[in-house]
Specification:
Number of domains: 2
Order of helices and strands: HHEHEEEHHHHHHHHHHHH
Radius of gyration: 36 Å
Largest sheet: 4 strands, mixed
Amino acid sequence: MKQVKKSFPDISPRAWEHPADTAALAALKRIPGLDELLKRILTVTTDKSLRLIALGSAVRVTERQFPRLHRLREEACMLLDLREPPELFVSQSPFLNAGAIGVNRPFIGLNSALIGQLEDEELLAVIAHELGHILSGHVLYKTLLYILLRVSTEIVPVGKLVLAGVIAALKEWDRRSEMSADRAGLLATQDPQVSFTVLMKVAGGSYPQEMSLDEFLNQAAEYEKGGDVIDSVHKLLNLMEESHPFAVLRLAELKSWHDSGAYAKILSGDYPRRSDAEDLRSTFERAAGSYREEMERSQDPLASALRDFGKRMESAGREVGKQAEDLFKGLFGGSFPPGTGAGPFGPGGQAGPGSGPQPGTAEPEDPDGSDRRDEAKRSESDSDRGSGSQSS
């Protein structure tokens, strides 16, 4: 029996975007004129060229060509509320891969290996993944990254150094954007097992009878928490040149999002709409919170070491503060330094008002009475001087 799926009218891509992806795009869009400048440049150059390459070397999907893919594209667009379906092309290739590219007229390219090795629902996940990129506005910056990668191999070394930082930052964002698009794919299939199986096939090929999803999940857990800090450094270095996060990382991230309740919340109809105002401050706060949560949740040895180091520093800071407070209490009889008015000294470290004996306190003691005898003698002397002056 065919599954009855829920559609998502007016759904905003913020519903499925990874917070770090959303924040990075928001930051890029805040640069005055950048979007418009990129669109103008790319539209008259690379955008036209890429579409002509697809039109001349691949097969365009229509009702009469790859009708199965045509039907799946229509279904994915209906579920994610994309009213103008993008063009879809199939290219001959043995690799399980797909991509969305373009500016004014983004289009999707599927490698032919996908058609023979994926079931219908798995293909739906792939197509919805690419639609997620288009709806999120990823394709403009993905196209820019594609151009920069090609240009960087053809220019002088000095130019490569200039572009290296830009390319590295775009690659980090690009990998995050793949995790966002995986969520869009899950919203289309509405079956976690299907989306997880796609990632397993991307890693191991179309041999489902030879693979176990449970074992692949165990493998993902081992990758995250296994090894030591040196292994963690190798993981970071290995990922730097990749366009996509490794399949086990994508699987772990998608499962975490599903298990968090965010997926179920969207299915219930509780999701941001395109008509809702976007709060940029909240966007950056969610991104920061997401990184903190990832750090707390991660079982990676390097992340654990950094987390433990941070906790030790925080504990040491509290201990130093307590010792300083105790020191001031011992020196000045209060919990604050002199000159604040909080201890026995007034402002400036001088004896302040009320620093002498206060009501209800004992006067200083005079054990031998010497002070009182001296006072009596002074009184007698004053009396004698007063008498002498009258007789003269």
